[in-house]
Amino acid sequence: MRRRTRIPAAPLPQREGIDPARVRLPVDPDGRWATVGDHLRDRFGGAIGPGRVERMLRDGRFVASDGPVTGREPYAAGLCVWFHRDFPAEEPVPSEVGVGYRDERIVVADKPHFLATMPRGRHVTETALARLRRDLGLPELQPAHRLDRLTAGLVLFVVRPGDRGAYQTLFRDRCVRKEYEAVAPYDPAVALPVTVRSRIVKERGVMAAREEPGEPNSESRIELVERRGGCGRYRLLPATGRTHQLRVHMNALGLPILHDPLYPVVRADGPEDFTRPLQLLARTLEFTDPVSGVELRFESRLTLAGLGGLSGPG
Questions:
Q1: 105 and 42 in one domain?
Q2: Do residue 69 and residue 187 come from a single domain?
Q3: Which long-range CB contacts under 8 A does 236-241 form with residues at least 24 apart?
Q4: What is the CATH number of the domain that holds 54?
Q5: pTM
Q6: Each residue's pLDDT tens digit, 52-109
């Protein structure tokens, strides 16, 4: 049985709610790298330039457990080195992250539209996780699940790393009842309520997911709550959690969610229009707490635009 090597604690604090990146030096059977600096130049020189690596070494930005790395240290496979990446310039999302509930184990937050749940790609410090870590003083906070960046509503975060697996398992095993709300066109020809089942595929690097023939891997129940003119307010009850599932299923019914930049047509990338948020809200989370055994129910305090102010998908 292979024994897992314990990873030492990071010697650098978080910066703006973001953990430092960690590099573990690999085995070097061919003796390619004589020093730690040789490896760092090879590893990062192509991405940020060798001159940048040299400056980071000179400024003490690469740090091992016993202090800053100069780059002249003899190469040692297994050595861990930490550093903070340079964060990309990000447009601030002009909405706060609300906290609906907090105890010693969990935080239930109301994520606004346009804010990513956790760092990914060009969204790093402008994420719900980074903001909450900073604002609440909880550096070990982690999400138990994720909402699309354009979707608003409830996200469950775990305070202690040791508890995260138990709460993630709830979502993996479909033990969480999730209810969403959406505003979309009204079509009397679409018979509702309806349960939609399909096979959804989301390819890495492709913005929109697609449906294809095959064994269904997604299921959503769609209900009409009210309508006014050409728009309706819908209750969406996902039984599974595929990427963009509700957006894909509403579009498949001919009811694309208002202000969706991907469905039915992928719009050209450009500046965010904060006045036209995707009309999709994660309204309710219900589950049995895996630690306390208590039944919990949370409801978002956010709201979507009123039907009177929406006339269609333009």
A1: no
A2: no
A3: 236/179, 236/180, 236/181, 236/182, 236/280, 237/177, 237/178, 237/179, 237/180, 238/178, 238/180, 239/174, 240/174, 241/145, 241/171, 241/178
A4: 3.10.290
A5: 0.88
A6: 999 999 999 999 999 999 999 999 999 999 999 988 889 999 999 999 999 999 999 9
